[in-house]
From TrEMBL:
It comes from Halovenus carboxidivorans. This is BZIP transcription factor. Transmembrane segments: none annotated. Signal peptide: none annotated. The keyword Coiled coil applies. Gene3D superfamilies: 1.20.5.170. Residues 43-60, 97-113 have a biased composition (Acidic residues). Residues 43-113 are annotated as: Disordered.
């Protein structure tokens, strides 16, 4: 193989790795947003308040800390591919989104996506 071809292939690999990282981040953000929307819908329907009032030990959709769930698409433990920095960044994004959602909910019943 000529050196130019090797450089082209290495460049292409780097581009593909960057694309995979970007898509993975986007997928994680989408999953977080879907989870937030599901929780909001559950609260609107009344699932959240009934469980809290009845005191039943019903498992929620969210795993407890340290619990290991299986990602339906890959079969890997959920979050296994995420680094601690990605997890921390996701938590920060979630906190920011929660504060925005709190102000929107108090103004009206219309959810702005």
């Amino acid at each position: 193989m000529c050196p130019n071809r090797v450089e082209e292939l290495e460049s292409r690999v780097q581009e593909l790795e960057a694309s995979v990282e970007g898509l993975t981040d986007e997928l994680v953000e989408c999953k977080v947003r879907i989870r937030e929307l599901e929780n909001a819908v559950d609260e609107d329907i009344g699932f959240g308040s009934e469980d809290a009032e009845s005191g039943d030990d019903i498992e929620t959709a969210e795993p407890s800390v340290g619990a290991e769930t299986i990602d339906g698409e890959t079969g890997e433990p959920f979050g296994a591919a995420e680094s601690p920095a990605e997890t921390e960044a996701e938590a920060t994004k979630t906190e920011g989104a929660d504060s925005e959602n709190n102000t929107d909910d108090s103004d009206s019943d219309i959810i702005i996506a």
